[in-house]
Specification:
By secondary structure, this protein is α/β, with parallel strands linked by helices. Helices cover 30% and strands 25% of the residues. It has a 7-stranded mixed sheet, sandwiched between helices.
C-alpha cells in the first residue's frame, strides 16, 4: 500500500488546477463589481476616471452616475478546493478595447456576460465574441437599483436571441452569494458542453 506521502495531493509542492473565467459585458454592466464581490484577494483593477475626452465616444445613457471605467482588465481569485483555483478576468466594456479580449480568452473555461437591461444592446458584442469562438457562456442579468421593472430571464433570452441551452440568471453583482451562483451556473454549463462534445467525438470515432 502506498504511503500517504506518496500521494501528490499531500505534497507541499502540489499545485491546484487553475481554471480561468472571463467576466464580460457592456460599459457599466457591473463587471468590476462582480469580480470584487467574489474575489478572496484584493482584486487587481485598472480603472481610470472618465474625463471629457470620452464625450461622444462612451455613452453614459442609463449609467449617468458612473465615474470610472476599466481600461485593461480586472483580476480576482477564488479557491474552490485544494485542487481547484478559479481566476477571474474582467474585460473592458468598450468596443475599442476588444483587442485585449483575445489574450484574456486564451485557455478560458467559459465566460459570464453581464447584462444591464437599461442598455441591453451593449451585451451583443460580448455574446457574438463568445459564440463565434465556441466559448461557453452564461448571461447574468444584473438587477440594478432603480430599474423601472425587472425583466424575466425568458424576456432577456428573447431580446438577446439566445439559444435555449444558454443559462440566463438574475443576479446582483454586489452580492457575493448571488455572484457565486452565476459562476456555478457557468461551470455546470461548461461541463455539460464538454460531456456532449466527448460523446459526439466517441460516436464519430471508427469502430
Amino acid at each position: 500500500m502506498a504511503s500517504e506521502t506518496s500521494d501528490p495531493r499531500n505534497s507541499s509542492t502540489h499545485m491546484p488546477r487553475a481554471t480561468k473565467i472571463l467576466v464580460a459585458g457592456g460599459f457599466g454592466a457591473g463587471k468590476t463589481t462582480l469580480v470584487g464581490a467574489v474575489s478572496e484577494i484584493q482584486p487587481l483593477q485598472t480603472e481610470e476616471r472618465i474625463t471629457t475626452a470620452s464625450i461622444g465616444i462612451d455613452s453614459l445613457d442609463g449609467v449617468d452616475e458612473k465615474t470610472t471605467t476599466t481600461v485593461a482588465m480586472d483580476f480576482g481569485r477564488i479557491t474552490i478546493s485544494t485542487d481547484v483555483v478559479v481566476y477571474l478576468f474582467g474585460t473592458p466594456g468598450q468596443d475599442r478595447f476588444l483587442f485585449v479580449w483575445d489574450e484574456l480568452a486564451l485557455g478560458a473555461m467559459g465566460a459570464v456576460v453581464l447584462a444591464d437591461t437599461r442598455r441591453l444592446a451593449d451585451s451583443f458584442p460580448s455574446i457574438d465574441y463568445f459564440e463565434q469562438r465556441g466559448i461557453p457562456f452564461v448571461v447574468g442579468v444584473n438587477c440594478f437599483d432603480g430599474t423601472p421593472r425587472r425583466h424575466t430571464p425568458e424576456e432577456v433570452r428573447i431580446a438577446l436571441d439566445l439559444a435555449l441551452d444558454v443559462p440566463v440568471i438574475l443576479c446582483d453583482a454586489r452580492d457575493r452569494e448571488s455572484a457565486k451562483a452565476v459562476l456555478v451556473s457557468l461551470v455546470t454549463h461548461a461541463q455539460r458542453i464538454a460531456r456532449q462534445q466527448r460523446a459526439q467525438r466517441g460516436a464519430a470515432a471508427p469502430a
